Amino acid sequence: MTALPLLLLDVDGPLNPFAAEPQEQPAGYRTHHVRPDSWLARFPGRPVGEIEPIRLWINPDHGPRLLDLPFELVWATAWKGEANTWIAPLVGLPELPFIAWPQMHQDDPDGLHWKTRALLDWADGRPFVWVDDELGPQDTEWIAAHHPGPAATFRINPGIGLRDEDFATLREWARTELGTGA
Is the separation of the CB atoms in 19 and 52 below 8 Å? Predict the structure, then answer.
């Protein structure tokens, strides 16, 4: 652990703009087709070659740009540890810690995103920015009411992914809220 704030990073949406029009691969992105174990597990008994791979659009410039931010990077994705196997090498990131969700895709009694409560527990009071494409105002409000330190939610359009201005916003948050980074 470092004294840096956490950047809790989702994959699908921020790094993989999966909702972009299929015929319009975003500029700067490369196409990859992968079959992670968690995906293969959805098709028990089927030969691997018969399982359609997941299409990823990944921008290799994102890794160095993320590493240049004044944050400790953490995977906050349904990919969990598989993000280190399938995503990190494509963007040039080292192995990162990840949140091992106790439960995934469950309904929340307060209408929160399924990640919100576990994410806050994992952060354990540390300052953070959560970057995801599925955040809602209820998550932001709940975090503000239940997290003792600086925290922000940063919703990314899943048809666009992270943009230049998003990196600038993240850097500015760290500078303004915590006095870190230049």
Answer: no
* CB 156 within 8 Å of CB 36: no
Phi, psi of 96 (to 5 degrees): -115, 155
Say what the pTM is.
0.91
- The torsion angles phi and psi of 84, rounded to 5 degrees, stand at -70, -30
Confidence of residue 104 (pLDDT cuts 50, 70, 90): low
HSE, CB side, 13 Å, CA atoms: give it for residue 106. Answer: 11
Tell me the C-alpha distance between 10 and 21, whole Å. 20
CB 151 within 8 A of CB 130: yes
What SS3 class is residue 147? coil
Phi first, then psi: what are they for 54, rounded to 5°? -85, 130
d(C-alpha 23, C-alpha 15), whole Å:
18
Q: In sequence order, what E strands does the chain have?
A: 6-9, 30-34, 54-58, 72-75, 128-132, 151-155
pLDDT digits (tens, 9 = 90+) for 131-140: 999 999 999 9
Whether residue 127 contacts residue 178, with contact meaning beta carbons closer than 8 Å, is answered with yes
Residues 6+ apart with CB under 8 A from 95: 84, 88
